Amino acid sequence: MAELIESSKTSQRNIPINIQHWQLRDLLQPSENPSLLYFSHDACILRFNSLTNISTTILRCDFLPVSFASNSGYTAAGGYAGQVLLTKEDSNSPPVKVKSLDISPINSIQISSSRNNNTPQMFICNNNNSIHIVSLPDLDTVDKLSTPHAPNSCALSNDSRMLLSGGDCGDIILHSSRSDGSFEKVASVTNNILRDAVICCAWDSNGNRFAVGGDDGFVLIYDLRKLSHPLSKIRSSQKGVKGSIRTVKFAKAACVDLLAFSEHVNVVHVIDCRDLSLNDCQSQQISVPNSNACRDVNIAGLCFTSDATQLAFATEASLSFIPIDHARRRAFGYSAINTI
Predict the structure, then answer these.
(1) Of 4, 153, 284, 305, which residue is the least packed, with the fewest Cβ within 10 Å?
(2) Cα–Cα distance between 85 and 67 in angstroms, integer?
(3) Residue 19, number of CB atoms within 10 A of its CB
């Protein structure tokens, strides 16, 4: 079987990324510009330019961010005590504090462009069993969604029609958008695999498939058109907390058809999504760079660049990149990606 990624070709930058919550590790985000990535360090959100190797502070907080998001020209960070700070990039205006939601952690933030007049919206997963949706830049409340348990992550499909969320006790919930930008619950996905917290979730580029992962050490991939059972079930390589799934991401370029996910420590996986079956799919396990073989390496996040030409993953000590060869992915019969 051909390798999906040649890990020996990994390029590495000495950029530290701080983890503030032991479970919440979605701390590396792509930009619409494929040469830019966002990450957190101490009380700041920074933008890294892979062409110049320069990091620029975008948002300076008065708290330690446990989650953040960057999209549509906005960057927002959330803290342990319900703090949310928002800034408009490349603007002289000071950051704005979003009205306090609740004195509980902000588990996840997403910023997306609404299909209603292309107005950006911010989705805030609060540990008090709710998802708050506000419009940008006026911060008007669009909707407040109640969830059975604390939502740890949410993701909006590319067409802005479906909102996916994952929470404690294996919750997987789908909401559909209304014409006014609010959302209504349309499905609660049940399975006998995920019984612990769902920590991360993501949509593919077409909005037909989604993936969820969490503390049980499984990634489940579903087809939106058939929710009775997952298309594929992928087990982490490590047992216990070490194998808990912390981040899952699809490449957003349809021609690539890749999914990547990270375990709590040491290991990143890449999955070929072109031929999925319940218990079998082409995948590759990648060991993250480690200068001390006697210690585990905490993984802070991963993502594909917006053009899916690179996979990036972060530890507390470094940021690593692996190029993706699109031409070889498109070649008939060649199911692997290789670095250059």
Answers:
(1) 284
(2) 11
(3) 19
